[in-house]
Amino acid sequence: MPPLRGTGANPEAEHPEYAGQYRLEARLGAGGMGVVHLARSASGLQLAVKVVHQQYASDSEFRARFRQEVGAARRVSGAFTAPVVDADPDAERPWMATLYVPGPTLADQVKRNGPMAPAELRRLTAGLAEALRDIHRAGVIHRDLKPSNVLLSDSGPKVIDFGISRPYDSDLRTETGKLIGSPPYMAPEQFQRPREVGPAADVFALGAVLVHAATGRGPFDSDSPYIVAYQVVHDEADLAGVPSDLAPLIGQCLTKDPAGRPTPDEIMTTLRPPSYDAAAFIPSQRRPVTGSAPVPETGADASSDADTHVGAGAAARARKMAPDGGGKRRWLAATAALLVMGAGGVWAVGTGVDFGGAGESGGAKGSAEEFAPWRTALRTTGKATPVCSPADGTGQEASGRAAGLYCAADGIGVTRLDPADGRVRWSRRAAKDSPSVGVVSVSGGLVHTAVPGGKLRAYDPAKGEQVWDADLSPYLGTPFDAGDALLLVAEDGTTEALDSATGVSLWRHSLAGHRRPDYALYDAGTGLAYAFEHSAYGSTTLVTAVRATTGRTAWQRRLDGMLTPVGTSGGALVMTAMNGDAQTVGLVHYEPEERNVVRMTLPFRMNEPEVVLGGDTAYLLAHGGTLVAVDTRPAEGGETVRWQLETAAGRTSAPVLGAGNRLYFSTADGRLLAVDTEHGKLLGQTGPRLRNGRLTYSSALPAPVAAGRTVFGTAPDGSVFAVDGQDPAHW
């Protein structure tokens, strides 16, 4: 096991390279008691590793408290916290590794975007109440719930930092005269009777946290912690600005008497009915298509157990059969569901029903100017959102439509859809109760996906027959698609390239200077794949351009800063630059032939933005929906930011560029949004697509697919849908 480095009493001691067996890759942040680093487990999981400051490592009381923190975090299930992966409280520098949870803290979110909307606040209230119920059921009192200890992840809020938590049965007591906690979020009894603090103190803190989320300030506000402490004990909470429907509940949480506060279960009961999530988002019907009757969509609640498709032609015929628009449409959907059922590994749709003119070719009748939107509900499990990819290259035919659309998700395995009308052409089912199916890609004339059992499998796109498979167990993560090669990185940092058409190994070796590289970008025009690796402290980044099919290094350069390649433009490489808190703060434009480096500073810091490059413009889409267009080749003295748009979206997918100055991205509730890249204007969006009418957040948010005039989206209700990219105003 590699030792901790730099453990002396010098500045190097605050920057160890290892914690136990984990190499520390980047600094995520720091607190009063330690520094949190980004690391990876042996299987490639991203970890947040907390390493105690050197000056506290020799403090026996602190070690006891840290040991208690580890034990408390382990006692909680992990559904509402960051699960503990490993820890060593007895090491020379005590450390604890938890699963890395991407997402901003509540404090950062409110600071950047202001108070939460009422619907968001209700979801936060329910999520934190559920988290406290889970924590208390494990016999733990957190005692330091505050906005900076709440992570807003895609699966709901996560409570972190159990540094001063106390199990009910703990013998460790706070020293006389010491108050431990954050005064604006401490309960009165924490100031008056710290040895008698119980679960109700966490409920008081919850109330204070919710006031901050609703107003941007606390219920007791002062620059002096002593005045705040007095207000907490003696004054009434200031609830001005809290939504009227939540103010009584939050006020009850802030009652001085612990016995008068609601339990987490009672808080959740108070929020029902109506459901706090279903009331926030209501699915809407698609607007009529020009030149045809309105096209209804089959609801997810009617098709969650079978693959069902009703195209524009089918909907029109259903209305002719049933003028009342009722039972006949449901009968058509049910008939289609029954006809999809099959046996064996390969199954296909052969309806034998006239769906209003969609023939074997899959094309809808009508002129080239007409467009028929469609929606297909796939049989997915849990909160799975299908991941789709078009055929090789642009995925387009002369008609401007994709030549093939291949989708994967939990419960369905791999499926080919006809991009013209959404019919299922073939599908390879996933094993029952199998783990997640990996992302799907199409290259070398085959469809590739990671399947349960640690396999990389290739299918013939025409019939769905298996062509070859490879063992992924020696490698980290999923294969990186680099055109005719699939790149895999082993635990020891070795890269192996497989021929995407045959599965045969093209080359295998380590990249000079790299310990464990990541591949972030492939440029089809040059055949170069870009590997990068941050130094232990994030001060430099080693970037290597590799010829994907031969493994030869085209160029390599160590550049200052924590950089990630995001695109190429005119032979130059464009990278994002992060600060020590893993926030994106700028862009770097690097020309390898001239070794010319140009750095551009963003107008504000962005948390984990998704980036797409179009020509000389980089589009950065941050959590919270802020979209910024940045000129990567600004004229001397010219403006770097071309435009900025607040889309009001929450968690989003990576953006993709389409024809006609269009940019598209998806949201966690299944909406698809279109933006004009020339003027930075929102052009339109679809309605939410929810599973059984309820707001759900999938573990992955796939990007949409743009092919010609068609844009394909996926949603957490398990559906894949196609809309006209030329007319987003009528989505």
UniProtKB/TrEMBL annotation:
SUPFAM superfamilies: Protein kinase-like (PK-like), Quinoprotein alcohol dehydrogenase-like
UniProt superkingdom: Bacteria
SMART domains, per the entry: PQQ, S_TKc
Spans annotated as Disordered: 285-308
InterPro entries the record matches: Kinase-like_dom_sf, PQQ_b-propeller_rpt, PQQ_rpt_dom, Prot_kinase_dom, Protein_kinase_ATP_BS, Quinoprotein_ADH-like_sf, Ser/Thr_kinase_AS, WD40/YVTN_repeat-like_dom_sf
Keywords assigned by UniProt, alphabetized: ATP-binding, Kinase, Nucleotide-binding, Serine/threonine-protein kinase, Transferase
Record: residues binding ATP: 50
Domain Protein kinase intervals: 22-282
Listed name of the protein: Serine/threonine protein kinase
